[in-house]
Amino acid sequence: MTIANRHPGVRIGLDVGGTKIAGIARADDGTVLATVRSATGSGGEAVLSGILDAVHALRAQLDTVVELLSIGIGIPGLVDVAEGRVLHAVNLGVESLAISARVRDAIGVPCHVENDVKAAALGAASLRDDSAPIAYLNLGTGVAAGVVVDGRIWRGSRGTAGEVGHFVVDPNGRSCGCGQRGCIETLCGGGALARAWGRDGEWPVRDILDAAAVGDPTAIVLRDDLFRGVAAAVRALVLSFDVETVVIDGGLTALADRLESGIRAALRSDATTSPFLQSLRLDERIDMLPAHSPVAAIGAALLGTALADTTSFDKEIVPHG
Amino acid sequence: MTIANRHPGVRIGLDVGGTKIAGIARADDGTVLATVRSATGSGGEAVLSGILDAVHALRAQLDTVVELLSIGIGIPGLVDVAEGRVLHAVNLGVESLAISARVRDAIGVPCHVENDVKAAALGAASLRDDSAPIAYLNLGTGVAAGVVVDGRIWRGSRGTAGEVGHFVVDPNGRSCGCGQRGCIETLCGGGALARAWGRDGEWPVRDILDAAAVGDPTAIVLRDDLFRGVAAAVRALVLSFDVETVVIDGGLTALADRLESGIRAALRSDATTSPFLQSLRLDERIDMLPAHSPVAAIGAALLGTALADTTSFDKEIVPHG
């Protein structure tokens, strides 16, 4: 077989975040052939330029015989998957952008767009040793989950699948941007915790843990909220989908062991009065990823392969805070 | 074509409840060819006898050329689907019973067993005009849901799929049999409401609604709990699975319009402060079945046809109160 007979195909996956784009070019056997990191702009045209620049930067690293099969993009916001349009990407200053059409016009290959948490869920599932369904719980500014079954993202009817961040667990809790009080997100969302903490700092949640460790009463309450909130999210996912494992990821994972041990402890202590919960062994069913795991870009690359979804109903697209 | 060439097949479906067995013989085109109602006994041997008697009673109504293809049984309790064994069927006084094996020994056809709520979910889904995924929320002594996707029951990893009754929505709420406080079931489970009401009566939940209608303060609180609890269960199902429709069934549906209008009102009023929730139009997304809808027996009959499940992981089976 000569080299000319081998035309390996690659898929590009871009994780387009509020501040940076992380991209890979991935062969179908999982090999990552190129990577890129660049800044995201603000506003539709800047975001699009950033996407195209990242694509060009990846292609420049690839052998010319390599065929680009597809481009996949994970982006925070509400995504109309059928059209490949993102809506209400508040962090990027984008209200509505027809990403798939624009990228396909510019590059000439199919382009698939998905909500970043769902894309990351797909990537996380692809890296696991078994093919059991998983929930992927993203702890970042907000809190949301994705569920992957048989290599496919669970897509619900109106875009609220996995929105465990907006389960109310305490009617007397803090107010949430979604308009309810006492949502899980008010307990363990990075943005909500930073607002509740109210002190400037580069990384409020880390400051909360540091201050709690030396006895600050406000910090101790917020630290407990963080752990309890994540525990509630894990329970919500197990009592609905009953996945065996909840994979935990997102910006908060940089807190590493302190976060992981706190979540496990909360899962155990919340079960003290309940043989039912104890029997579920929830503390053994979480899998926290190392910080900066590239699952979002990997999952984005896989969007071109996840052809059929468990559900594919597109009703009105729902904006929410 | 002579009659001898036509050997229609039927599937028997039995809904084995705490007090009665409801059974059907169903052709694969949906025609119900025979029905039976009988009393359930208590204890494993009595339950088994009741099952076999119901099977014989159905067969006696069928033409002799009809072939019995399978027997399906929905039963309250934890079911090991692979083995066809029911565990902890407290209402029937059964701790462990190998139903499939015993029935197959006696009758000679395959026998499939499933938890009654999951079987009913399958039946409810089969009767709908479209094939979109649904959640089926059963409001009875307890509260639990089943989810059906593409004609298959969603089965989780350890038997807790759809256990929305044990989502905690108020840390200061009433104690639940599961050991937690403030579960959804403590708000809208028939058993929990009857205990909270504390007055004898044939049908405590109806008595609560009647008393609330004439201003009884305790009843008003409990009526509000009922509606709020069901609304929370609907939200839990939409914010996790994001089904388009939550089908509502179970013993409480005999309360008919009073229950349905109360649930819708709670869904609307809970959304007052949240444009997000309002946009979901949850009050338009419930479908309450008429009382005594035969979905459980229909779903049980279909168990013989639902060959592949979305998930089929059998971990340790989990008992819970």
Folded structure, characterized:
Chains A, B: This is ROK family protein. Chains A, B: Belongs to the ROK (NagC/XylR) family. Chains A, B: It comes from Microbacterium bandirmense. Chains A, B: Pfam families: ROK. Two copies of one chain form a homodimer. The first copy, chain A, has 321 residues and is an alpha/beta fold. Helices cover 35% and strands 23% of the residues of chain A. Chain A is built from ten helices and 13 strands. Chain A has helices spanning 44-60, 99-107, 116-126, 184-188, 190-197, 204-213, 217-240, 256-270, 275-280, 295-302; strands at 9-16, 20-27, 32-39, 67-75, 78-80, 85-89, 94-97, 111-115, 134-139, 143-149, 152-153, 245-249, 286-288. A five-stranded mixed beta sheet of chain A has the order 3-2-1-4-8. In chain A, strands 11-10-9-12-13 form a five-stranded mixed beta sheet, with helices on both faces. The longest helix of chain A has 24 residues, at 217-240. Chain A is globular. At the A-B interface, helix 7 and helix 9 of A face helix 7 and helix 9 of B.
Provide a brief overview of the structure:
Chain A is α/β, with parallel strands linked by helices. Chain A has helices spanning about 45-60, 100-105, 115-125, 185-190, 190-195, 205-215, 215-240, 255-270, 275-280, 295-300; strands spanning about 10-15, 20-25, 30-40, 65-75, 80, 85-90, 95, 110-115, 135-140, 145-150, 150-155, 245-250, 285-290. In chain A, helix 3 packs across helix 10 (about 295-300), helix 6 packs across helix 7 and helix 7 (about 215-240) crosses helix 8 (about 255-270).
